[in-house]
Amino acid sequence: MKKTFLILAAAAVASAIGFAQSSSARQQLARGREAWDQRLTKTAIEAVQEATRDPATAAEAHELLGIIYAFKGWQQDNVFPGFHDEPAYREKALAELQAALKADPRRFTARQAQIVAEGFAAADRVDPMLRRPAITLLDAQIERGRSPDVPIGELIETLQTRMKAQADATPYFAGAQVLIDRGEYNNAITLAEHGVPVAERFIQENLGAFQMEGKAEGALMRSRAQAADIVGWALYMKKDYAGAATKLEEAERLYRGDDFNNQFHLAELARAQKQSDRAREHYLDALSLTAGPPAVRERATEELAKLYAAGKKKSKPFKAWLDAQLIARQNDRKKADLKSRLDTPLPKLNLTTLDGKPYDTSSLQGKVLLLNFFASW
Amino acid sequence: MPHLKTVYAKFQNDPNVAFLLVSIDDDSKRLERYLDEMKFPFTVLRASSAEMQRAMGFNDLPSTFYVDRKGIVRYQILGFEAHGDSDARVAWYIDQLKHGKTH
To answer: Which residue of B has its CA nearest to A373?
Structure first.
C-alpha cells in the first residue's frame, strides 16, 4: 500500500511541474519556485526565465534566478555529493540580482542575496595558493637558466636565493633538471640528492596539511622518486649506464611504474644499451600515461616507430599497432587499480630463482601456497 | 619477516603446503646481504617490481597472497596488516585453505 502511494505522489509532482507551460507569468514563477524547492534546476530556470519578461514578476523572478545561479556557481559542491560548482553561473548570479534590484530598488531579500553572492565572489578573488610574488619570480628565473646565455654562476646564485626564500624542495629538483640541460651533470646529481632531506623536512613541518598519513607518505615517496630519476638521468647523460639503470629502476619502483618521465628515461637507457625489447616496453608504458610534454611524447613515438620498423612481426601498420598497444596498457592499468586478485586463479608469473633460472609455480599444484612479495629495503 | 620462519616450522613437513618468497629488489648485493642475515628455510625467488605489481595488484610491501589447492587466490594481505603479521594469523590462513574453507 505504502509503495503505491509513493509512486502516485511522485507522478503528481512530476505532472504539476511538467504541464504548466503557456500560462501567466505568475503561474510560471510559482512553477519555477516549486521546481527549485525540489532542486530541479533546469526546469526551475526555464520557468523563472519566462517570468522575468513580465514587469509584474520581474523583480521576484530575477531574484530567484540569482539565488539558483549562486547555488550552482558556489554552493552545490557542498550540498550534493558528486556535484561540482559551475563557475560559469557566478557572473550570471550577480547580474540577475542586480537586475532584480533595478526592477525594484526596495526589494530587501534581493539586496540580501546580492550581499551573500558578492561575498562568495570576493572570496574567489583571494588566491588560495597565496604564492608570494618573490617566489614566483625566482622560479621563473630558474627556468630561464636553461638558456646558455645565463652564466652558470648566476644560475647557482638564483638557486641559493630561492632556497633561502622558501624551504620547499622546488629549487633542488627544478634546479637539478636545469643543470642537466646545461651539461652540469655532477652539480645536478649533488643538488637532487640534497633535495630529498629538504623535501622530507618540508613535509614533516606541514604534516597536517596532507590530512592522511598515506598522502604524506606518497609525497615523501614522490620526492625520493624524483631525486632518483634525476640522478639516474644525469648518470645516463654521463654515459654511466650501469649507475643510471640502478637509479632509474629505483625511481620506477618508488613511482610504482607510473611516471611518464621516468618511463621515458628507462626507454632511452634501454635503447642506448641496444635492448630493443625493453626500450619498446618502456616507450609504450610512457605513452600510455597521459602526461609528458608534447615534444617528448613525439620523440617517444618516433623512437617506437623505428623499433617497430626494425622488428620482425609486423601484422599491422605502425599507427594501428600503437593504438592497440596503448589501449591494452590503459585497460591493464585500470584493471590493476580496480580489481583485487581474490577468487581468481593465480596468474602465470615471470619468476626466476636466485641464480637467474626461470621458475614455474605450476610445480606446486595441489598445495596450499603462501606467496609473499618483499624487498630488502 | 622473521615470523614467516616461525610459521614455516609448523608446516615444513607438510607435503600439502608450500612457502614462496619473491623479492622485487633491484639491488642484488643488498638482497644477498639480507638473505645471508635472514637465512630463510624456504624458496626465495626474484621478479620485476613493476611486472609483479601489475600482475598481482599490490602497491605496498610486504604483500602476501594465500592460494588454495586449486590455484585460486583466496586471501590477500597488502602491506603490513594491523594484527595480521603474527605467526598465529598466518597459520590460520593456511589452515583454512588446507581444510577447504575459503572465507
So the answer is: B22
Alpha-carbon distance values, A210 to A202, A215, A256, A293 (Å): 12, 6, 20, 28
Residue B35 covered by a domain:
yes
Q: Round to whole Å and give the CA distance between A333 and A42.
A: 38
On whether the CB atoms of residues A162 and A134 are closer than 8 A, the answer is no
Phi and psi of B46, rounded to 5°? -130, 155
B97 Cα to chain A: minimum distance (Å): 7
Give the domain range for residue B31: 2-98
CATH at residue B86:
3.40.30.10
Residues in chain A closer than 8 A to B84 (CB atoms): none
Partner A contacted by B98 (CB < 8 A):
yes
Number of domains in chain B: 1
Residue B103 lies in a domain: no
pLDDT band at A2 (very low <50, low <70, confident <90, very high): very low
Which residues of chain B lie closer than 8 angstroms to A270, CB-CB?
none
Query: Model ipTM?
Result: 0.95
pLDDT of residue A318: 92
B43, pLDDT greater than 60: yes
- Backbone phi, psi, residue A284, to 5°: -65, -45
Beta carbons of A159 and A175 less than 8 angstroms apart? yes
| B42 found inside a domain | yes
Cβ distance of B56 and A370 shorter than 8 Å: no
Q: Using CA atoms, how far apart are residues A278 and A258, in angstroms rounded to an integer?
A: 16
In a domain, B74, yes or no: yes
Mean pLDDT of A358-363: 90
Indicate the pTM of the whole model.
0.50
* Model pLDDT for residues A270-301, shown as the tens digit of each residue: 999 999 999 999 999 999 987 888 999 999 99
